[in-house]
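Why DJ-1/PfpI domain-containing protein? Reviewers of the renewal asked for a concrete example.
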Amino acid sequence: MAPITFGALVYDYQAMDVMGPTDLINSSGQDLLRALQVYAPIDDSIISRAPKVIFHHIGLTKEPVALLSSHVTIVPTTTIHECPELDCLILGGPNPEPFQLHPEYAEFIRRHVAAGKLLFTTCTGAYVAALAGVLDGKKATVNHIEFEWIKKRFPKVQWSMDKQWVVDGQIWTGSGASAGMDMVAHWIKENYGLDVLTAGALGLDFEPRDIDGLFTVLPKRYDANGKQISTHVYKHYADTAPASRAHASDFNKLLPVANPKSSPWVVPLLPKGAVSTLILGHRRTSMDDRFLVYADGSNDEGEVVLHVHRSWTGFALADITFKVPLDSVGEQNLEGDGTMFTKITYEAS
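Here is what the prediction returned.
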């Protein structure tokens, strides 16, 4: 999967307008999700569908710029003259009344939109897009406090306060700063799936709202008495588990089973905690270690394949399939009962 390149123009915007959406995108990206596997089980199949993301903060120069809020100063990582081609541009919201859009920024925005690339605006970032002329004839929204003030100044834009964000072609406009995060959450869900969004939101302990501002995006959870409980489910490895999950790419040479034979192998997997430990696998840490072990993700049915190889030669000894039960919201229950070995494939003599 090719990396997605995001850019944000640097001027005196409200910090959360850009930092909130980009942090959510980053938290839903492959690099951070892979890093979090050190601390908690995150399925490889989710990570494989998550985006790889590159961020650019684009200035007129690389001189520091003081943002509108929180006494934050940001140093641009590139300039409008040096910036590589972007897949997506994000415009944060300034204080509209005194704000003046630099002509080179305006031209940068127009070129980006004319190329058919994705544009996100958050809060009064839509005012910046309107100043650049890219919202004329488009449906859009903006921070609802400044709504009427901005609407009067740009009558060619089809302004609306009916929803938390508005999509018109490749232009997505969000209302307040938090609504910008909700909007980007919807984009992540639409393009990469609910489980990728859930994993990304989990790291931020963030629950996105829908386009009407309601908490309907992530599945609700309830206890045995029907009382609503926390939406997010936090899982951890057993205390004896290794620090990070092993992957096939960790090993120099792995050979498949040359003459495979498979047979059913239906036995319970015990004790509790063994599932997490098996999924983490095993790397060779000394000359005495004879085996390399790693697991392939899980499919939609919760099946995981555990691969066992000789550490010195890389020859495969067995591929063992086991099935992990799913909880009430469709997540793997790694620490619960019910995990079963189902099949073994081994070298036939």
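The mean pLDDT is 89. This is the kind of structural detail the renewal will allow us to pursue systematically.
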